[in-house]
Amino acid sequence: xxxxxxxxxxxxxxxxxxxxxxxxxxxxxxxxxxxxxxxxxxxxxxxxxxxxxxxxxxxxxxxxxxxxxxxxxxxxxx
Length: 78
Known about the structure:
The chain is mostly helical. The protein has helices at 35-53, 65-77; strands at 23-25, 32-34.
């Protein structure tokens, strides 16, 4: 997922962008982006889209009851 190379405003994807480029201007819409802020906005939007669709990000983790018992005993010992 090209989060730092996709323009948050118009969706244009820059074909190549070296990691040392920290700020860039979209050739399609002219918006200037900080690479990290733009990536964060794109990742947030993708996550919200998944949540709106109702899909789980990952299955809930089940605790092993044997492991859980060991944790409780070690906490009581302290």
